[in-house]
Amino acid sequence: MQQEPFAETIQDSPELIRLERGQYSMLLHSQMSTDGSIYFSLPDQDGDLYEYEGDLDEALDDLPGIYSVIALENELQQSPTLTSEAAIVIEQLWSHFEQTGTHELEGEQDYNFRIEDGWLLVVPKEPSEEVVALSRDGQVESTFEPERYGHLMERCAIAYEQMQVQQFQRDNEQNWELG
Amino acid sequence: MVQFVDKQQATKTLSLSGETLKKYRLQGEWIEGIHWVRINSRCVRYNLELIQDWFHNRHDPAAHWRAIEVYQSTLLSNQKKSTKKTK
Predict the structure, then answer these.
(1) With contacts defined as CB-CB under 8 Å, which chain B residues touch A78?
(2) What mean pLDDT is predicted for residues B63-83?
(3) Most CB within 10 Å of its CB: which of A10, A52, A170, B72?
(4) Are residues A100 and A128 in the same domain?
(5) Mutate which of A39, A46, A63, A72 to test chain B, going by most B C-beta atoms within 10 A?
(6) Tell me, what's the pLDDT at A79?
(7) Is residue A40 part of a domain?
(8) A92 and A129 inside one domain
(9) How many helices and strands in chain A, by DSSP H and E?
(10) What is the rounded average pLDDT for all residues in chain B?
(11) With contact defined as beta carbons under 8 Å apart, do B55 and B63 qualify?
(12) Residue A93, in any domain of the structure
C-alpha cells in the first residue's frame, strides 16, 4: 500500500502498519484493506477491528472523530451524566409529575417519560429495550447507545431553548400588563 | 466462554477477509450492538472475541448466547446496573 506522505509509519508486523495523525494512531491491516474499505485496529484495544468505508486518507481524517466516539462510550459506561440543559429539563419533568400526580408523559418528539419505582425513565418511542433512569437525587443510569444518549442530550438542549423562549414571552406579557 | 486474544491473534485465527465481515454483518448473521457497532456513518467496529465465538459455536446458538451474556456482564455499565428498571 502506498504510504501517505503526511503520516509517520512504523512497521509493527508484515500485516499491521502503525499510522499516526497528530496524537491519534491506527494499526492498519494492510492485507485486508482494499480501495473501498480500510480495516484497522486501535492501540490498546484488544479484540476490536474497525472497518471504514473510504480511502486511507479519509480514514485518517476521521480518526479524531472515531477516538471521540470511543471516549464518549467509555465515559458513558463509567458514569453517564446530564448536560446542564438536560438537568434543567429533567427537573421540569420531575416537577410536572409531582404537581400532576401522573406517572406517564408522552413526549412530543422521540421519547416518552414515566415514573417507576421512584425513578424517572426516559424511553425511546420506537420499540427498544434501551432506557435512561434518573433518580430524584441526580443519579443517572443508562443503557442507551452513545449515539442515542447524545441525541437525547441534543433534544434536551432544544427543549431548554424552547423553555427559555416561553419564559421570555411570559415576562414580556407581564411587562405589558404592568405597563 | 469468550476467549480474549490479542488483535493479531484474532485476525489470524479467523482468517478474516473484508468480504466475509461485510457479508455476515449485512446479512444480519451478526447482531448490531453485540457483534458490531456503528461508530459513525462510515465506520463500524467488530467485536472479534464474539465473532470468534460465533464461528466456533455456529451450530450451537445456545452456547453462543451464553458467550454473549458473559461478554455483556463484563461491561461496566451492566456491572453497576440493577435489574429493576428495564421492563
Answers:
(1) 76
(2) 69
(3) A52
(4) yes
(5) A46
(6) 66
(7) yes
(8) yes
(9) 3, 10
(10) 76
(11) no
(12) yes
| Residue A129 pLDDT grade (very low, low, confident, very high; cuts 50, 70, 90) | confident
Over residues A15-22, mean pLDDT: 87
- Going by C-alpha positions, the residue among A33, A79, A81 that lies closest to residue A57 is A33
Q: What's the rounded mean pLDDT across residues A115-123?
A: 95
Give the nearest chain A residue to B76 (CA atoms). A77
Q: What pLDDT score was predicted for residue B26? A: 94
Domain count, chain A: 2
Start-to-end CA distance of chain A, whole Å, equals: 75
Our CA angle for A66, A69, A73, nearest 5°, is: 140
Q: Which residue range forms the structural domain that includes residue A173?
A: 84-178
The answer to whether ipTM exceeds 0.85 is no
pLDDT of residue B75: 66
Find which of A13, A34, A48, A113 to mutate to test the B interface (most B CBs within 10 Å of its CB): A48
Please list, in sequence order, all residues whose beta carbon lies within 8 angstroms of the beta carbon of residue B6, skipping any fewer than 6 positions away.
A46, A47
What domains appear along chain B, each with residue ranges and CATH number? 7-79 (1.10.1660)
User: A34 and B81: CB-CB below 8 Å?
Assistant: no
The verdict on a CB contact (< 8 Å) between B11 and A78 is no
- What are phi and psi for residue B66, nearest 5 degrees? -65, -40
pLDDT at A32: 87
Indicate the residue of B8, B42, B85 with minimum beta-carbon distance to A133.
B85
